[in-house]
Design brief:
The protein is 34% helix and 27% strand. By secondary structure, it is of the alpha/beta class. It binds adenosine-5'-diphosphate and magnesium ion.
C-alpha cells in the first residue's frame, strides 16, 4: 500500500504539486487525469521513488521512501515498482527478449530464471514470435508491448504507466490497456495509469483528477 501525506513539490519557488492525503491500495486500478502541466508525471515520479518531495512523506507499507538514500531507493524501485513511459527507449542492438531481460538486472535473479520469465512475458504480451527480432523491426504497438513485458520482469507490486498509449492509435491503445487490466487482475498489483483519454480513465476503479498540482 502506498500513501502520500502532506506532499509539497516545488521547483525553485514554484509549487507544482500539493497533496494532503492520497492512498493507493493493493489490487487497485487508478487513473490519473489532468491537463498538461497539472503535475501528473510529478506525482507518478514521487510514488515510484524517481523523485523526492520538497516536504511530506511517501509511505510504502508504512516506510517513508522519501528518507531513503539513493542506493536504498534504487533497490526499492527495482524490487517493487514497474515503470512504463510514453516515450521509452528500447536498446536498439538488443533483441526483444534481451530488452525484457535487462530490466531484471537490478534484482538478483539467476540468469536462467530471468530468461524463463522474459520468455513467458513475451508470450503474455503476444510477442512470442518476435522474441528474436530487433526494435527497428517492430510496430509502435509492439514496442509498447515490449515495454509492458519489460516493466513486469521483477513482478512489481506497483505498476506506474505515464501516458502509455499517448502515441498509439485507438486500436493499439485499447489492446495495450486491456493487456494491462488483465495482468493487473491476475497479479493483484496496483496499477496507476496517467492518461489524457477519458475512455481509458473510465475503465479504472477510481479516477484522480489533478488541476494546477491539486486534486480536484
Ligand atoms: P504533467 O505530467 O501533468 O504534464 P508535470 O508533472 O510534468 O505535468 O509538470 C508539472 C509542472 O512542473 C509543470 O509546470 C512543469 O513545467 C513543472 N516541472 C516538471 N518537471 C520539472 C523540472 N524538472 N524542473 C522544473 N519544473 C518542472
Ligand atoms: Mg506528464
Amino acid at each position: 500500500m502506498i500513501e502520500l501525506k502532506n506532499i509539497v513539490k516545488k521547483y525553485k519557488s514554484q509549487t507544482v504539486l500539493e497533496i494532503e492525503n492520497l492512498r493507493f491500495d493493493e489490487d487497485e486500478f487508478v487513473a490519473i487525469v489532468g491537463a498538461s502541466g497539472s503535475g501528473k508525471s510529478t506525482l507518478l515520479n514521487l510514488i515510484g521513488g524517481l523523485d523526492k518531495p520538497t516536504s511530506g512523506e511517501v509511505l510504502f507499507d508504512g516506510e517513508n521512501i522519501s528518507k531513503f538514500n539513493d542506493r536504498k531507493l534504487s533497490k526499492f524501485r527495482g524490487q517493487k515498482i514497474g515503470f512504463i513511459f510514453q516515450f521509452f527507449y528500447l536498446q536498439p542492438f538488443l533483441t526483444v527478449l534481451q530488452n525484457i531481460e535487462v530490466a531484471g538486472f537490478p534484482v538478483k535473479l539467476k540468469s536462467k530464471e530471468r530468461r524463463f520469465r522474459a520468455e513467458k512475458l513475451a508470450s503474455v504480451v503476444g510477442l512470442k514470435d518476435k522474441m528474436n527480432s530487433f526494435p527497428r523491426e517492430l510496430s509502435g504497438g509492439q514496442i509498447q508491448r515490449v515495454a509492458i513485458a519489460r516493466s513486469l520482469i521483477n513482478s512489481p507490486e506497483i505498476l506506474l504507466a505515464d501516458e502509455p498509449t499517448g502515441n498509439l492509435d485507438s486500436e493499439n491503445s485499447d489492446r495495450v490497456i486491456e493487456m494491462l487490466e488483465l495482468i493487473q487482475k491476475q497479479t493483484k498489483m496496483t496499477l496507476i495509469v496517467v492518461t489524457h483519454n477519458e475512455q481509458i480513465a473510465a475503465r479504472a476503479d477510481r479516477i484522480i483528477r489533478l488541476k494546477d498540482g491539486k486534486i480536484c
